[in-house]
Amino acid sequence: MSKIKKVVARQVYDSRGNPTIEAEVFSNNLSASAICPSGASTGTFEAYEKRDKSNKKYLGKSVLIPVATVNKLISKKLKNQNIHDQERIDSILIKLDGTKQKTKLGANTILAVSMAVKKLSAKVKKIPLYKNFIVKKNFKLPFPLMNIINGGAHADNGLRIQEFMIRPDKAKSFNDAVRMCFLVINNLKVLLKKSGHSINVGDEGGFAPMISDNESALKLIVQAIKKSGFKNGKDISICLDVAANELIKKGKYSIHSKNYISVNQSIKKYLQLIKKYQIKSIEDPFGEDDWKAWSKFVNETKNKTQIIGDDLFVTNLERLKIGFLNLSANSILIKLNQIGTVTETLEVIKFSQLIGFKTIISHRSGDTEDTFIADLAVGTNSNQIKTGSLARSERIAKYNQLIRIEENLGRLAKMNKID
């Protein structure tokens, strides 16, 4: 039995240049480290991110207190624990915090350790990380939901919708999926330049042109898909992340323009966009507590559109069960730092798949070079992965890791189902 010798934490930096925590777990002569990401568009019910708010040297954004918590408290509590007993280790971490949303120690503090433990367990077993989760054979590669235009909280333009993405539905392999997205992105770049728009990128690597309305962005994407030799809605589909939490006021929404309109009017506009642009997936179309609006929308789409709960579910089993009973969505976004441990994340994935929900593994806007979620996607046979565009190395790192995994699987590598 391999036992934990010690856990060491340090302050490092994420893709926005903000401090974050890295934990390294040691057993015998081996060690493994993991870095916690950070979100910008966060749900109220997410697990808490601990920062040193009074530390003016880092503008209140440092994580030196979480680092000290790992080095002084968590390391002692986990010493001599079986590195392969993830559930017990995560249980110790959860009990050490003792709060519902991990407000005492912080989900970032706990998650960095939890992820590092999972990595070290695979290292000790001498197996790839993706083989250390739920699936033991018949692994499937996820389809990428690739962000190509940024708006909302991820860019400084006038777009209401936060993410405009493409999904290469007809890709025969993960390598092929990335190639298809590569073509569309490069043709979109040409179209943006031709139209006099900036080709600067946002937090997640998608272009952030100064476009003021959603349909202008959608029209450009349709043109780029066609210019690449593909058929919109068949070869490649457009997918949206609305992040409606940012666009609600007194029960009304400003999703489709700066004007606030009713739920019914918002649904009508959504249905028009779905039909006009062959949109196959919409994430967070309504607010995190507007259960009735979600249920009505799912019903209106006749369950033919992928409706993803992110802020609605926050990778939380209790909220997922409410959503399932209310028929509020048919898919869930999985973000490790929304709940705080690997064990709790896997529980949500297992339940999601049991009730027939599609699972989409996701990065955060403030991400890192850590590729844990790429292995998680394959190791849980999740349908899709959302990890940004083909720009910024912290996003590319996940795609490159999936390419390596596909190569490792060889002839056994297959793409997952999206229908």
Quick structural gist:
The protein has 419 residues and is an alpha/beta fold. Helix content is 37%, strand content 16%.
Strand content: 15-25%
Number of strands: 16
Oligomer: single chain
Global outline: globular
Ends apart, CA distance between termini:
43 Å
Secondary-structure element sequence? EEEHHHEEEEHHEEEHEHEHEHHEHEHE
What are the low-pLDDT stretches, counting only 5+ consecutive residues below 50? none
Main beta sheet: 9 strands, mixed
- Going by helix content, strand content and strand pairing, the class is alpha/beta
Average pLDDT, rounded to a whole number, is 95
- Determine the fraction of residues in helical runs and give it as a percent range: 25-40%
Characterize the structure shown.
The protein is of the alpha/beta class. It is 37% helix and 16% strand. The strands form four sheets. A nine-stranded mixed sheet has the order 5-15-14-13-12-11-8-7-6. A three-stranded antiparallel sheet has the order 1-2-3. β9 and β10 form a beta hairpin. The model has no long low-confidence stretch (mean pLDDT 95).
What is the topological layout?
Elements: E1 6-13, E2 19-27, E3 30-35, H1 64-78, H2 86-97, H3 107-125, E4 140-141, E5 143-144, E6 146-150, E7 163-167, H4 174-194, H5 214-227, E8 237-241, E9 248-249, E10 252-253, H6 263-277, E11 279-283, H7 291-300, E12 306-309, H8 317-325, E13 331-334, H9 336-339, H10 342-354, E14 358-362, H11 372-379, E15 384-386, H12 393-409, E16 414-415
Parallel strand pairs: 4-16, 5-15, 8-11, 11-12, 12-13, 13-14, 14-15
Antiparallel strand pairs: 1-2, 2-3, 6-7, 7-8, 9-10
Helix pairs in contact: 1-3, 2-3, 4-5, 6-7, 11-12
